[in-house]
Design a protein that fits this description.
207 residues; alpha/beta; five-stranded mixed sheet; 5 strands; 51% helix; globular; binds cobalt (II) ion
Length: 207
C-alpha cells in the first residue's frame, strides 16, 4: 500500500519533470484554463479521465460521480456544466461510462447498499425503462455491460435536456454531447455513436 509521504514525493517529481520538459507550463496555467472538453465520467479509480485521453492539466474540464449520472436536480453536476458551457465555452461534452461499472452492478442487485441506493435508483429507472431488451440477455456480465451503455445514452439525453445546453443551442453556440464507453480490460474508448449537436438531433434519440 502506498503511503501519504510517497504521494508528496510523487508530486514533487511530477512537477519537476514537467518544469524540465516545459519550463513555462505552470505559469501559463496560472493565467487561464482553456479546455475544449468537458468530461463527465465515473468516480472509479480505474478510469482516470486525463490519462485515458492523453490530455494535460488545463485541457480537460472534469466532473466525476458514481456511474457518471447527470441528474436534473444535481446542482453540483449542473454547476460544472454551466461553467463549462457559459464561461469556458467548451465545444464538446463527453459522457463516458465504463464496462463493469460497480455502480451499475450494484443497481441491478436486490440487496441493500445503504445511502447510495438513493443515487442508484436513477440507474434502476433506466433498467425498468429498457428491461425488455435487458431481460433478453441471458449472461449477467453482458447484461451489466449493456446497461452501462444504455446508461450513457440516457445521460447524454439528460445533458442535452438541461436548460444550460438548450439555451446554448438556442443562442447558436456550437456544442456537441457525446456518449463514450471505456473498457477497463483493454484501456480503449469506444464512441457509442449517439452524439447530439442540436435540439433536432435530440428528438431522434428520444424513446
Ligand atoms: Co463505474
Amino acid at each position: 500500500m502506498r503511503t501519504l509521504p510517497q504521494l508528496f514525493e510523487n508530486n514533487r517529481q511530477w512537477s519537476a519533470r514537467i518544469n524540465l520538459s516545459d519550463p513555462g507550463f505552470f505559469q501559463r496555467l496560472v493565467r487561464q484554463q482553456t479546455p475544449d472538453f468537458l468530461w463527465i465520467g465515473c468516480s472509479d479509480s480505474r478510469v482516470p479521465a486525463n490519462q485515458i485521453v492523453g490530455l494535460l492539466p488545463g485541457e480537460l474540464f472534469v466532473h466525476r460521480n458514481v456511474a457518471n449520472l447527470v441528474i436534473h436536480s444535481d446542482m453540483n453536476c449542473l454547476s460544472v456544466i454551466q461553467y463549462a458551457v457559459d464561461v469556458l465555452k467548451i465545444r464538446h461534452i463527453i459522457v463516458c461510462g465504463h464496462y463493469g461499472c460497480g455502480g451499475i452492478r450494484a443497481a441491478m442487485e436486490s440487496r441493500p447498499h445503504g445511502l447510495i441506493d438513493n443515487w442508484l435508483g436513477h440507474i434502476r429507472d433506466i433498467y425498468h425503462k429498457r428491461q425488455d431488451e435487458l431481460m433478453s440477455i441471458a449472461d449477467q456480465e453482458l447484461r451489466i455491460n449493456r446497461l452501462c451503455e444504455l446508461n450513457v445514452e440516457e445521460q447524454v439525453k439528460n445533458v442535452a435536456n438541461t436548460s444550460i445546453v438548450q439555451d446554448a443551442w438556442r443562442k447558436g453556440q456550437t456544442l456537441i454531447v457525446h456518449g463514450w464507453i471505456y473498457g477497463i480490460s483493454d484501456g480503449l474508448l469506444k464512441d457509442l455513436g449517439f452524439s447530439v449537436s442540436s435540439a433536432y438531433d435530440l428528438k431522434g434519440l428520444k424513446k
